[in-house]
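Weekly modeling sync, notes
Attendees: S.R. (lead), two postdocs, one rotation student

Agenda item 3: backlog of single-chain predictions. S.R. asked that every request posted to the team notebook include the full sequence so nobody has to chase files. The rotation student volunteered to paste the first one in as an example of the format we agreed on. Action items at the bottom.

Example entry:
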Amino acid sequence: MTTFPIDKIRADFPILSEKIRGKDLVYLDNAASCQKPEAVIECMNHVYRHDYANIHRGVHTLSVRSTDKYEAARDKVRAFINAASVKEIIFVRGTTEAINLVAQTYGKANIKAGDEIVITAMEHHSNIVPWQMLCEQTGAVLKVAPMNQQGELIYDAFETLLNNKTKLVAVVHMSNALGTINPVKKIIDAAHALNIPVLLDGAQAIPHMPVDVQELNCDFYVFSGHKLYGPSGIGVLYGKQALLEAMPPYQGGGDMIRTVTFEKSTYAGLPHKFEAGTPAIAEVIGLGAAIDYLNDIGMTNIAAYEAELLDYATEQAKQIDGLKLIGEAQEKGAILSFILNKIHPHDIGTMLDSLGIAIRGGHHCAMPVMEFYGVPATARASFAMYNTKQEIDVLMEGIKSLIKVFG
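Predicted structure, as returned to the notebook:
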């Protein structure tokens, strides 16, 4: 049994004391977005009250303060994922923008008609649509590696898709719809054996487990702040320095330039080449505060505690007649997707909300996954480090009450 300071952690999240329809909030929609600790809220509050000014351009005190904190946050991100240099950390709006940036810069520069891009059958729309758009623009072909009924990648089938036409592999680290944790190191090694670069969508994985991009040896890693107990509207693109240096800018404007004349402009070096315009200053600093908070707890400790929660929830769910789990991979993160006989997931979500329980009902931006399982949607309870077994009990009692109501 893991010793975990759950009471202290829960006290750090003000929203967890909210009442919903007179009931204690049970927040189980963490795969969509995590709640924010007091440390993040107060950090951003302090920035706006005491430090805020535009960064990089000013020599006055407030600009220097904001710039120092912004760049300090970049180094916190670098250390958190063990990147080799702050030049490899690009701030974007979120995972979606990071993938689009790679597609429209690296992709357009390196992928042509007849080339192939390999993804998996369990991808979020954010790791499908940008590649479809690139294929339409270039004449490249999108290949999809299949999965089995447990929601696991069929690795042998994936490996057979790799060939000299494959120019990029883009794979989810942990599925948001199923919780599946892919064998990403094995995937990267196989792709690199054929000199194929790999992008990992880490949006779901990053809050749940330690991530070391140098150990993984991935070429790109992308994630969002709002799933990492940080602010919304901020995310990170990690890319190997040599790749980023060779890629053209994604957007033009202020702060990404070295010189501008009406005849020609030259561009700033990394990482600023990809950060045009005034960035999300307080949000970046807030993301740094979230990383500080997580480091204090320890990602290994978080992973162990959440594994206990998932095991407990899975065991309880399997005892409920009429509940079917969707996604039972052997390697899985803290997500429980399910369906109930004769009850639409949207109705499950609405009725559980009347009990103060927040889950997600829908296709989870993974419509091909729903099609694979032959369902329009699933109900998804997703766990975070501030959830408890007692909250899982409340969820299960709520589910049982719904089944009674619907007969």
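Discussion: group reviewed the output briefly. The chain has two domains: 41-296, 298-405.
Action items: rotation student to repeat for the remaining queue; S.R. to check formatting next week.
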